[in-house]
Design goal:
By secondary structure, this protein is an alpha/beta fold. It has nine helices and seven strands.
Length: 265
């Protein structure tokens, strides 16, 4: 399927690895020019080289990068100094650490909310009006299946991402944006084979005394698909939400979890 977005410009956050890289790769393969952002310059440069060498990338598709912390004012300023306007924005920041809520102080909560709620809101605010003026825009927030099925040790993530979900539910439905072909959706990954899963498993292992492999095997068995997801298939889902074909989908929370969420709605 031709996604109809070749030649568009996308900002992809947390793009050096994992789900962010999967999204960047899928967009580049569709001919979308991408500005990749991540904190670690070495990992980011390696990711850029991988995309530039991808035989599925159309030859004239640009791949740029900015090594910056998108969760800071300074980091966002650096990104927008590189390019001020985007047709597609993928918000993504590393999730807060797992743990016991009794040990989290105010600073931990502020850091979580800043990264996983306020940063996406700042990126939305900086880009949606120009998208609306052009008559096309796609914003996809990578959140978590924990928004619908909270995980006890991920309380910081549960809270911050739920706040973003509520904000998106309102702003995505404003007629100024929806009628201008600007959509805002959230992609809710379940268990994917990424560094984030490894960190969560390590936290659970410390709490329970069980081995990481034992915990991973138990988690895998709870997923109807009987496997963890991979970043490539997550990227494909993201690319569809960014496509011309997804203009009638907005304000939604789309689970990609192998059927793990047990609810009807």
């Amino acid at each position: 399927m031709d996604m109809g977005i070749a030649g568009k410009w996308a900002l992809v956050c947390g793009a050096s690895k994992g789900l962010g890289f999967g999204c960047a790769q899928a967009l580049v393969r569709e001919g979308v020019h991408v500005v990749m952002v991540a904190r670690g310059p070495q990992a980011l440069e390696a990711a850029v080289e991988k995309l530039l060498a991808d035989p599925a990338r159309p030859a004239d598709t640009a791949v740029q990068h900015v090594a910056a912390d998108i969760t800071t004012v300074e980091g966002r300023a650096r990104v927008f100094a590189q390019r001020s306007d985007f047709d597609i924005v993928i918000t993504n920041a590393g999730g807060p650490p797992p743990g016991d809520f009794r040990t989290w102080d105010r600073e931990a909560w502020i850091k979580a909310v800043d990264a996983n709620m306020l940063t996406p809101i700042e990126l939305i605010k900086a880009t949606v009006d120009n998208m609306a003026a052009r008559g096309f825009g796609r914003i996809v927030n990578i959140t978590s299946s924990a928004v619908k099925a909270p995980i006890d040790i991920l309380g910081l993530s549960n809270g911050a991402r739920s706040g973003l979900t509520g904000f998106v539910a309102g702003v995505a439905r404003t007629s100024k944006l929806a009628s201008a072909n600007v959509t805002i959706n959230n992609l809710l990954p379940g268990a994917y084979d990424t560094d984030r899963l490894k960190a969560t498993m390590a936290g659970a292992a410390e709490k329970t005394g069980k081995s990481i492999e034992e915990l991973k095997d138990a988690r895998r068995k709870l997923i109807p698909a009987q496997r963890f997801g991979n970043p490539d298939e997550f990227g494909a889902a993201c690319a569809f939400l960014c496509s011309q074909h997804a203009g009638y989908i907005t304000g939604q929370n789309i689970l990609t979890d192998g059927g793990a969420y047990p609810g009807t709605y």
